[in-house]
Amino acid sequence: MTKRPRTELQSDLTPISDMCAAFDVTPRTLRFYEAKELLSPVRVGTRRLFTRRDRARLTLILRGKRFGFSLEEIRQTLDLYDRTGSDAAQRQRACEIARERLAIMEAQRAELDVAIAELKTELAASEARFPVTHRAAE
Predict the structure, then answer these.
(1) Residue 90: closest CA among 102, 72, 101, 76
(2) Residue 25 near residue 14 (C-beta atoms within 8 A)
(3) Is residue 3, in this structure, part of any structural domain at all?
(4) pLDDT band at 7, cuts 50/70/90?
(5) The domain containing residue 111 runs over which residues?
């Protein structure tokens, strides 16, 4: 059986199964992002085919989620994209959001460092009062 050559548009489209494999996400995740209007795959019947733009947007969505950005913050940043080539507004807003998120994460880390130090102190005091005799089980 001879394969037909794909047109440029067809070769740019990625089926949902390939998107899931490439980005380690579930179809449900992709449908969720589509429902939230973060992705807009091409529909061919009941099939969803994702464009190069969708793939780029999903990369940014997943990166934003990893950094703790809300979907609304991600949407705001993605919506600033200017197809004419000027991405200054998008980059500026992304930097603002990133600075805010970094400050929050650093504050959380500082709180966590304090909590860890306190827990270590309490644990050491507790073990000094009541020596653990069954450490071999660890």
Answers:
(1) 76
(2) no
(3) no
(4) very low
(5) 80-138
Q: Per the structure, how many domains does the chain have? A: 2
Give the model confidence (pLDDT) of 28-76 as tens digits. 999 999 999 999 999 999 999 999 999 999 999 999 999 888 999 898 8
pTM, whole model, 2 decimals? Answer: 0.68
Secondary structure class of 95 (helix, strand, coil): helix
Residue 64, CB-side half-sphere exposure with 13 Å CA sphere: 23
Residue 35 lies in a domain: yes
Mean pLDDT of the chain: 85
22 vs 27, 60, 62, 137, CA distance in Å? 12, 14, 12, 42
Those residues whose C-beta lies under 8 Å from the C-beta of residue 73, and which sit 6 or more positions away, are 64, 97
